[in-house]
C-alpha cells in the first residue's frame, strides 16, 4: 500500500520518464547480453535499425545492405522493429539455408508469427506457405502446369503473337514521329515492357486478352485519334473483364508487393496506431481484398465455362485452366498420392494465391531483367555487336520466322548476357529463411524461428567468389558448359551457392524456366525487329526497389529494320 501511495502521489512526468529509462535499460541489457554477438548496427528501442535504413530510403534498401556488408562483414544482424534479421553474403555459409532436401531445417521463409497474416497468408499458396504438406501439394500442381510441354509451347506462341500486336503500335509511333521537326519520340521501354508483360502473363495465367499496353501507349502518346490505332485496338480486343484484369490487376499486384515489404518491415504498433502509417496499413488490407475479389471472380467464371464443355474437349493451356482440371476426370495424367490413390484437387483459395504469386513475380521480375539487359546491350557496343551477330546467324533477322525452343537453345551469348544481368542485379536481392529447430550457421548456434536473409546480390558481388564482380562481363558464363537456356545447368559450374538468381534449395523458384523463355524471346523479338538506341547514352539507369528491383525509365529510339 505504501508503494501504491508513493506512485499515486508522484509527478506523472517523472513516472513516465522513469518507466522509459527502465525499459531502455532493460532493452540494451538484453541486447548486450544476447547469446550470439553477431556484428551489426546498434538498434534503437521499438524501431530497431529502421532509422538507419531510412537514411538510404526504401528505393535503396540493397545499397544499405551493401554498406552494412562493407562495415560488418559477410554475416551481420539488423533489427526491423523488434524482428532480428541475420544477413549472409558468403556462399560457404549457405549450405544449410539452401538445402534442397525435404528434411531441411530451413523450409520456412519467415517466422510463424509474421505480420503477413494480415494480408491473408495463413498457410496457402506456394511462396509464403509454411505448411509443408500443403506447400508440397500446391507446388506439385504448379510445377506440373508450368512444365507441361503444351503449356510451354502455347506460352512461347502467345509471346510472339503479343509482340506482333505490340509492334503495330511501335511501328506507328516510329512512322508518325521520325523525321519531324521535333525529332523522334522517345519511348520509355521500361514501362512499355512492363505493360506488355502484364498482358502476356495475365493471358498466360487466365486465358484472357486485355489492354494494359494499349491503355499505356494511348495515355502516353495520345494515339486514340489515329485511325490506324483505332483499327489495331479493335483487333486487340477489350472488354470490361479484360480491362479489369489487365489494367487494374497489374496495378494491384504491384501494390501488393509494396504492401508485403511495408507490413513485414515495420512493427505492428507503428502500422496500427500511428496516424499516416495506420491509414496506409488499411490500404494494404484493402488491396489484398480487391485482388482476392478479382481472382475469385475469374476463377468462378472459368469454372462455369469448363463445366459446359464435353469431358473430351481440348481445353486451353492457360495456368488457371490447368490448375482447375489437374487431377480431375479431364486430366489424363492424374497424380498419385503415397497410398496409391489419386491426389485431390486444389481449393479456390489456393488457386487464387498461386495465380497472384505467379502474376506478380512474372510481371515485375522478368520486366526488370529485360530492361536491365537491354540497357547493358545498348550501353556496351561489343556486347550489342555479338548479340546482333548471334541473331543474324540463327534467325537471319527474319521477323516472319517463328521462334522455337530449339532456336532459344542456340542463343548462348544471349543466355550469358541474361545470366550476367541476373548476377549483378537479381530481381529479389534477398529472400528469407527460418530455422525450425536449434541449428548452427556461421559458427553460431541459433534458437528456433531465427530469421536469416541470404543476400543473393551480396553473394554475386563477393570477390571471394567472382573476379572483378562489378564488371558486366557475359564471357564469364561462356567459359562454362553453357549449352542450354536455363540456370539449372550452370549451378555446378561455379562455387557452390555463389550464384543464386532464382533462390536455392527446396524453395527454388518453380517458374525460372518460364521466366528465361520470356526474357530471351522478348529480347530476340525486339532486336531482330528494331534498331534500338539509347535516347541519352550518358544517363544513368532510372531504377527503384520495392522488395523487387524495378526499372522506372529507359528512354530509347526505335527504328524498324525494314525501313
Task: Describe this entry's structure for a reader.
The protein has 563 residues and is α+β, with helices and mostly antiparallel strands. It has one domain (140-560): Cytochrome P450 (Cytochrome p450), CATH 1.10.630.10. 52% of the residues lie in helices and 8% in strands. The chain contains 20 helices and 11 strands. The strands form 4 sheets. Strands 1-2-7-4 form a 4-stranded mixed beta sheet. A hairpin with a 2-residue loop joins β1 (75-80) and β2. α6 packs parallel to α20 and α7 (189-206) packs across α10 (240-265). It is globular, with a radius of gyration of 26 Å. The relative contact order is 0.14.
CATH topology: Cytochrome p450
Q: Determine the number of helices (DSSP H or I, runs of at least 4 residues).
A: 20
Residue share in helix: 40-55%
Please state how the strands of the largest beta sheet are arranged side by side: 1-2-7-4
The CATH architecture classification is Orthogonal Bundle
The poorly predicted ranges are: 179-183, 234-238, 482-487
**Text of the CATH class:** Mainly Alpha
What is Rg? 26 Å
Amino acid at each position: 500500500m505504501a508503494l501504491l501511495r508513493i506512485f499515486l502521489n508522484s509527478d506523472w512526468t517523472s513516472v513516465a520518464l522513469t518507466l522509459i529509462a527502465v525499459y531502455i535499460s532493460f532493452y540494451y541489457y538484453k541486447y548486450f547480453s544476447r547469446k550470439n554477438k553477431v556484428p551489426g548496427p546498434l538498434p534503437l528501442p521499438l524501431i530497431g535499425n529502421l532509422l538507419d535504413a531510412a537514411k538510404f530510403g526504401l528505393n535503396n534498401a540493397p545499397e544499405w545492405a551493401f554498406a552494412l556488408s562493407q562495415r560488418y562483414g559477410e554475416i551481420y544482424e539488423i533489427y526491423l522493429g523488434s524482428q532480428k534479421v541475420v544477413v549472409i553474403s558468403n556462399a560457404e555459409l549457405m549450405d544449410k539455408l539452401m538445402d534442397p532436401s525435404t528434411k531441411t531445417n530451413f523450409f520456412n521463409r519467415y517466422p510463424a508469427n509474421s505480420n503477413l497474416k494480415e494480408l491473408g497468408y495463413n498457410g496457402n499458396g506456394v511462396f509464403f506457405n509454411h505448411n509443408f504438406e500443403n506447400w508440397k501439394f500446391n507446388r506439385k500442381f504448379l510445377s506440373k502446369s508450368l512444365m507441361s510441354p503444351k503449356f510451354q509451347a502455347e506460352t512461347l506462341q502467345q509471346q510472339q503473337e503479343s509482340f506482333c500486336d505490340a509492334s503495330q503500335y511501335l511501328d506507328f509511333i516510329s512512322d508518325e514521329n521520325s523525321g519531324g521537326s521535333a525529332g523522334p519520340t522517345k519511348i520509355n521501354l521500361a514501362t512499355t515492357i512492363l505493360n506488355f508483360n502484364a498482358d502476356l502473363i495475365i493471358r498466360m495465367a487466365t486465358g484472357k486478352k486485355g489492354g494494359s499496353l494499349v491503355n499505356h501507349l494511348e495515355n502516353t502518346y495520345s494515339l486514340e485519334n489515329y485511325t490506324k490505332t483505332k483499327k489495331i485496338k479493335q483487333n486487340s480486343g477489350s472488354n470490361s473483364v479484360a480491362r479489369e484484369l489487365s489494367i487494374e490487376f497489374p496495378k494491384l499486384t504491384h501494390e501488393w508487393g509494396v504492401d508485403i515489404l511495408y507490413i513485414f518491415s515495420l512493427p505492428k504498433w507503428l502500422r496500427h496506431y500511428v496516424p499516416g502509417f495506420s491509414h496506409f496499413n488499411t490500404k494494404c488490407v484493402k488491396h489484398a481484398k480487391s485482388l482476392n475479389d478479382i481472382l475469385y471472380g475469374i476463377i468462378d467464371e472459368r469454372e462455369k465455362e469448363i463445366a459446359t464443355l464435353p469431358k473430351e474437349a481440348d481445353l486451353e493451356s492457360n495456368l488457371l485452366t490447368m490448375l482447375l482440371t489437374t487431377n480431375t476426370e479431364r486430366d489424363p495424367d492424374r497424380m498419385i498420392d503415397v497410398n496409391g490413390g489419386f491426389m485431390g484437387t486444389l481449393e479456390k483459395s489456393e488457386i487464387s494465391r498461386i495465380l497472384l504469386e505467379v502474376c506478380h513475380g512474372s510481371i515485375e521480375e522478368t520486366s526488370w531483367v529485360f530492361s536491365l539487359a537491354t540497357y547493358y546491350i545498348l550501353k556496351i557496343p561489343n556486347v550489342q555487336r555479338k548479340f546482333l551477330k548471334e541473331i543474324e546467324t540463327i534467325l537471319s533477322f527474319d521477323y516472319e520466322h517463328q521462334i522455337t525452343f530449339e532456336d532459344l537453345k542456340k542463343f548462348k551469348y544471349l543466355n550469358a548476357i541474361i545470366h550476367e544481368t541476373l548476377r549483378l542485379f537479381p530481381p529479389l536481392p534477398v529472400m528469407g529463411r527460418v530455422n525450425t529447430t536449434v541449428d548452427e550457421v556461421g559458427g553460431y548456434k541459433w534458437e528456433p524461428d531465427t530469421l536469416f536473409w541470404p543476400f543473393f546480390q551480396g553473394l554475386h558481388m563477393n570477390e571471394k567468389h567472382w573476379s572483378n564482380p562489378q564488371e558486366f562481363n557475359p564471357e564469364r558464363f561462356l567459359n562454362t558448359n553453357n549449352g542450354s537456356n536455363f540456370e539449372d545447368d550452370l549451378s555446378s559450374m561455379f562455387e557452390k551457392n555463389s550464384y543464386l538468381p532464382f533462390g536455392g534449395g527446396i524453395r527454388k523458384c518453380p517458374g525460372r524456366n518460364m521466366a528465361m523463355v520470356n526474357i530471351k524471346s522478348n529480347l530476340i523479338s525486339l532486336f531482330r525487329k528494331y534498331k534500338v538506341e539509347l535516347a541519352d547514352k550518358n544517363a544513368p539507369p532510372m531504377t527503384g526497389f520495392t522488395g523487387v528491383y524495378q526499372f522506372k525509365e529507359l528512354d530509347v529510339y526505335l527504328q524498324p529494320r525494314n525501313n
